[in-house]
Amino acid sequence: MTVNKLQLSEVFSQHLDKNLLRIAEKVQNSERLSEEEGVLLFEKGELGFLGTLANYVADNLHHGKVYFNRNFHIEPTNVCVFTCNFCSYSRLYKQRDDGWELGMEQMLDIVRKYDGQPVTEVHIVGGVHPKMNLEFFCELLTKIKQHRPELHLKGFTAVELDYMFRKAKLTTAEGMQKLKDAGLQSLPGGGAEIFHPDVRQEICADKVDGDGWLDIHATAHRLGMHSNATMLYGHIEKYEHRIDHMSRLRNLQDETKGFNCFIPLKFRNMDNDMSHLKEVSIFEDLRLYAISRIFMDNFKNLKAYWPMLGRQTAQLTLAFGVNDLDGTIDDTTKIYSMAGSEEQNPSLSTEELCDLIHAVGRRPVERDTLYNEIKEYKLDDATVA
Which tens digits make up the pLDDT trace of 106-147? Predict the structure, then answer.
C-alpha cells in the first residue's frame, strides 16, 4: 500500500502503543531509529504496521521501481577449510572427493557460454580451498577481463578474502589492491552471518570475525570498490543480535557510503549441523524485511534473494520494503538449493522476472551492478528481450 505522511498519521494515531507511534513519527520525519527502537519493532511491531512503514520508505526512495540484473554465477569449489554449523554447501578438504573443484579452463568455459548474451555481471563465490590462492584468482580475473572487458566482476566473500590474504602474507589493503588490479570490481556480501561474537562463536567460530568482515569491506570501499552486505537470520540469534548487526553496517555505511544494498538471508535447515532448528515462518521473513527497510536508513536498496526465499515469497517482500530481486541467476547456483530452499534449479528469464514484478503493481527495471538503470520494462511491452 502506498501512503503519504498525512495518511500515515491517520492510520496510526488512533490505536498505537505510544512508543510505536513515536517510531512512526520518526520515520515520517526521516529521523534515525535507535537500536532500542529497532528491537522494539521486532518485539511489538505487527505485520501491517511494519509493512506500511516499510512501503512508505521504499516508495519515497524508488517510486514503485523494482530492480534486477542479468547475471550468472561461477562457484569454483565447495571444498572448504572452515566448518560453519549452518552450512549445507561445503565439504571439508579431507572429504573433497564428495565435492567439486573447477579448474581455470572450466571456469572460463562458463564465461564463454554467455558470449553474445546480454549479461552484465559474473558473481564468483565458493568454498575456501587451500590450493585456490590469491595468485590463482588474480589469474582467473585477468583472463575473464581479457575475454570480456565489459563484464562486471563481483567476487569473493570476506571469508575467502581473509584466508587468501593471510596465506599470501599480505595486509588487507595490499591484497585488495592486488585483486582490484587484476580486474575485481566489487564484493558480494556473504560471510557476514551475525556479527555478534556470542552468536558467531556458536555457528562459525573458525572463520573471520565480525570486525574482520567489516574491515575488509571498509578497505574495499576506500579503494573505490562497492560491496553488498548480508545477514543470516532465523537460527539461534535474538532480536538484539539482528539489530546490533544492522547497526554496525549502518555505521560503516555512514563512514564509507560503499554498500550497494542489504540482503537478509534466511537460514535453511536441510543437511547441516543445525538441522534440529525449525525454520522461521514467512510471517517472520516479511517482518524482518520490513524492519530492515525501516532501520537501515542509509541503505537505499534492500534485496530479497529469490533463489533462497522462493519466487512467491520474494514477490510478497515487495509489499514490505524490498526494491530488488537480485538477478536472472541464469545457472544452477547451489548454495541454497543444497540447504533445502524452494528453488532447486534457480533460473528465471527476464520475462518471468518482469511478470513477477508487474503482477504486484511494481515497475521492473534492469540495472547494472552499481544500480545504474539500463531499461524499464513496461507492462505493455510485446516481448521482453
Answer: 999 999 999 999 999 999 998 887 888 999 999 999 999 999
> Nine-digit cell at 111?
564465461
CA distance 181 to 364: 34
Q: Which fold has domain 65-376?
A: TIM Barrel (3.20.20)
Instruction: List where CATH 3.20.20.70 sits in the chain.
Output: 65-376
pLDDT level of residue 196 (50, 70, 90 thresholds): very high
Q: What is the dihedral of CA 70, 74, 78, 81, to 10 degrees?
A: -110
What whole-number distance in Å separates Cα of residue 160 and Cα of residue 17?
45
pLDDT mean over 246-271: 94
Count the neighbouring beta carbons within 10 Å of the beta carbon of residue 349. Answer: 12
Residue 338 has pLDDT above 50, yes or no: no
What does the longest C-alpha to C-alpha distance in the chain come to? 65
Residue 264's nearest CA partner among 294, 295, 233 is 233
The set of cell numbers assigned to 287 is: 517482518
Tell me the pLDDT tens digit for each residue of 300-331.
999 998 888 888 899 999 999 999 998 775 54
CB 170 within 8 A of CB 134: yes
Highest-confidence range of 6-20, 80-94, 97-111, 331-345, by mean pLDDT?
97-111
**SS3 per residue for the chain:** CCCCHHHHHHHHCCCCCHHHHHHHHHHHCCCCCCHHHHHHHHHHCCHHHHHHHHHHHHHHHHCCEEEEECEEEECCECEECCCCCCCCCCEEHHHHHHCCECCHHHHHHHHHCCCCCCCCEEEECCCCCCCCCHHHHHHHHHHHHHHCCCCEEEECCHHHHHHHHHHHCCCHHHHHHHHHHHCCCEECCCCCCCCCHHHHHHHCCCCCCHHHHHHHHHHHHHCCCEEEEEEEECCCCCHHHHHHHHHHHHHHHHHHCCEEEEEEEECCCCCCCCCCCCCCCHHHHHHHHHHHHHHCCCCCEEECCHHHHCHHHHHHHCCCCCCEEEECCCCCCCCCHHHCCCCCCCCCCHHHHHHHHHCCCCEEEEECCCCCEEEECCCCCCCCC
Encode 148-158: b = buried (16+ Cβ within 10 Å), e = exposed. Answer: eeebbbbbbbb
